[in-house]
Amino acid sequence: MSKIVVANWKMNPQSQKEAEVLLNALSKETKNAKNTKIIICPPFPFLYISKKIKSKKVILGAQNVGKDTEGSHTGEVSSSMLSSLGARYVIVGHSERRTDGEDNKIINQKLLNLLKSKLSPILCVGERNRDKEGEYLSFVGEQIKECLSGVSKSQMANIIIAYEPIWAIGSGSIREATREEFMEMKIYIKKIISDIYGAKIAHSMIILYGGSVNPLNAGTFVSDDGADGLLVGRDSLNPKKFSAIINAIKD
Question: Can you give the pTM of this predicted structure?
């Protein structure tokens, strides 16, 4: 199965020209990537670059979506709008959005709207702290259950789950996560999915790892039936580092 690498540009870069230069550089650096699906998620103003994507390996995604489908919601973007611009994947539930006030109920509304628009949600889950009692497992379990409320078995094939431990994200992270910590969570996530949707769907569930992903640790998380791919933040803005991440996980 092809690995999936998602580039989350966040609120970068700062101009249209820079966005086009970055896209071209990423496309050039990853043109020889094999068995890898590359999803580029730029800020909303730069979604027009779907028309400038020349590589068949690169797919357009978005970083967020509004919880409503249309109407008087100033500043919001609907799933239909994203679809019309060529987006095929959309990140929902990122920890940075949750910090800004989004809860599982809002994320669930967004996810359901995306599925209705035939878009594939990349659902982010993750705990803020790792406690010795293991409460972080039930915390992530509740995130998954509440965010997937109302999702049918057939719709699950269009959903990707990205595990991002908040304590391992960004320059202010406590430390990097280990492969063992990810594998524990991957097994637990599949158990939660199995309890709700059955073992067959759980087995086929695509689970990514995100959290200070870089060229040095990328291969560790993906090797030997580990993560099905990666959600990359900071290093997705550096074409050479992003290419090195992809090269580190190729079969």
Answer: 0.96
